[in-house]
Sequence to fold (103 residues):
Amino acid sequence: MTFGQPRVGVSSCLLGEEVRFNGGHKRYRFLTDSLDRYVDWVPYCPEIQIGLGTPREAIRLTADGRLVNRSGTADHTAAMAALPLRADLDGALSARAWVECPR
Fold:
């Protein structure tokens, strides 16, 4: 029996895409240089998916579970909750401490 490469959803910034709040990336060379030949990466950035550009004001998760920008003037909770879940993936990786990974 032969299996194809696993399809793994991954934060776009970890693959080197400049989609972070500050317009940068967090390329993780272990993923791109070592695992790349074994995995079919499916890049994903929920902030881009809901229409936020780069650079942008970082968003944060509040104590009551809302996703708001740092200044508190925009609530992105409903837009994020409306994003569809991918059923065609074998797994997923996200950047550490996502929401916006400002570290």
Summary: Residues 7-93 form one domain. The chain has one domain: 7-93. The first strand starts at residue 7 and ends at 11. The CA atoms of residues 4 and 40 lie 9 Å apart.
